[in-house]
Amino acid sequence: MVGRSGLYALLLANAVVVTVFFVQAGFASNTLIVLGRLAGLYGALLMAFQLLLVARLPWFDRRIGMDRLTSWHRWTGFSVLWLLVAHAVFIVFGYARSSSLDPVNQLVDLAETVEGVLRAIAALAIIIVVGAVSARYARRRLAYETWHFIHLYTYVAVVLAFTHQVAAGTSFTSSSVARTYWYAVWGVALASVFLGRLVLPLWRNLRHQLRVTAVVPENDDVVSVYITGRDLDRLPARAGQFFLWRFLTKDRWWQANPFSLSAAPDGRTLRLTAKRAGDGSAALRHLKVGTRVFAEGPYGAFTTLHRTRPDALLIAGGVGVTPIRALLEELHGHAVVIYRVATDQDAVLYDELRELTLAKGAELHLVTGPAVPDRLAPRELARLVPDITGRDVYLCGPPPMMNAVLGSLRELGVPRTQTHFERFSLAG
């Protein structure tokens, strides 16, 4: 994929440049200090890369998908943490080896005598706290809002770390070219965040003036919300994508939830369909017509942009049918739709799917029953779709179901380039 390989190439190229500047700056006589400085440079580079990953730039998001960008952000974040810890440990122990001080007193001495070190200590402390609350054990026990609030302090750490690098980094002080390069790297990263996270959402919402026009219960647990606004034909949304929706009521204006479009954008109306999974999604049922909406997006690479075959297989599980239903509306060529639910009553939007498949000459299979035995095992999928290896496969549903189906697709020999999915983590 162009976007993914482009990001890898960008990071590798910058790592090479950083290494060249490091070598040109000269080596210290102490090996620990050399290792510490190199770890600090790579950690700073990854911090800038982190900003690019979370900037939500449309070009990257459409080609890679927010779920993959988020996954890279998570692992890059832990890499930053360990590199900066290594930077601090190697530097402190390296200077302690050259002096008569123990490591603790050496750290205190560096903080008191070297400009920027105290800021670096504060930045590292923040990153350690953010890393701790981002570990899976802690993340599962924290409310999303609490975790997100703590996570925002990362931006404070970024500023502190950058000013430390400017003040104390030998790559900065030894070469005007290196200094210009670092300012350019950080300028692009910070500008990307400013553009993608602030300017673009504000501009789009000011332009489109979104409001709720209807709230329609689909069953006891699922509701559809219809939204309209100005110039929606100019909103670059596609079937399969999602928005972060913020409904501007007095008790929910501060909470944003990711919900997929459940109908292909038609230039006049947007529709989301959500299952009650928490306070945020449960509150949708009580929205009033006319409620103002602030939407960030569209996001996601779960679109027809990456199709490789004229025919498609769409597999939905539960409320994961929402982007699948939207994709079916937009797809051309022959399509097979498999909808996996526990009971017939759980088949949300089934009537719409049936009408769409009839109108488009597609096939629709409703697969019901308990999770065991697996109704989407390789043999069952091959029976329902004999030419499955010649189709693009779009998959959306609960994580256990998606993992099982992805295993079936691999066993059947469906190429990875023909398999399209995104893992949505919906915070209620």
How would you sum up this structure in a few lines?
The protein is α/β, with parallel strands linked by helices and about 425 residues long. It is about 55% helix and about 15% strand.
The structural class is alpha/beta
Low-confidence stretches: none
The chain-level mean pLDDT equals 89
Question: How would the global form be characterised?
Answer: elongated
Helix content: 40-55%
Number of continuous helical runs: 16
Strand order of the largest sheet: 9-8-7-10-11
Q: Percent of residues in beta strands?
A: 15-25%
Distance between the amino and carboxyl termini: 32 Å
Q: Whole-number radius of gyration?
A: 25 Å
Order of helical and strand elements: HHHHHHHHHHHEEEEEHEEHEHEHEHE
Number of strands: 11
Which sheet architecture does the biggest sheet show?
A: 5 strands, parallel
